[in-house]
Amino acid sequence: MVVRASVVVVSMCLAFTGCGGGLQPVRGKVTLPDGKPAANSQGVFDGPIGGKTISARGDVQADGSFELSTAQPGDGVPLGKYRVQVNPPPVVDAEAAQRAPFHPKFSDFSTSGLEFEVKAGGNDFTIQLTK
Chain centroid to CA 100: how far? Predict the structure, then answer.
């Protein structure tokens, strides 16, 4: 009975993550054109993996670092190639004139020009934004 339950759990895990690759840790750093951290922005990875579109997100911390999550905080990302966009920090004052601290092209998968491949083992990506 226990063996059968274990087989079901393992099968479910393999179905979600693909052919045994599992979720891989993905970390990185996002910096603004002046080299300062892109704090409070958000990195988004999106790709067709195993016949499904997978989207993973990670909030950029004060030091510019991020860690991607697919379903649970820090759980990682399936193996594969991803398009990437960086969302600017949320608007704090809706009445104040605000501009994103980086070029708006980075906030759209089709114009960002950012692509990364998640491989088995550690994945540490640096994203340098421009004006």
Answer: 19
User: When comparing pLDDT for 64 and 8, which is higher?
Assistant: 64
Q: What are the tokens at 91? A: 């608007």
For the chain, the average pLDDT equals 85
| Residues contacting residue 61 through CB under 8 Å, at least 6 positions apart | 37, 39
Higher pLDDT, 49 or 13: 49
For 93, the domain range is 23-128
Burial (Cβ within 10 Å: 0-12, 13-18, ≥19) of residue 105: middle
- Of the candidates 71, 77, 87, the one whose C-alpha atom is nearest the C-alpha of residue 27 is 77
- Would residue 10 count as lying in a domain? no
User: Does 8 or 97 have the greater pLDDT score?
Assistant: 97
101 inside domain? yes
Report the sign of the C-alpha dihedral through residues 28, 30, 36, 39, in that order: negative
The CATH code of the domain that includes 27 is: 2.60.40.1120
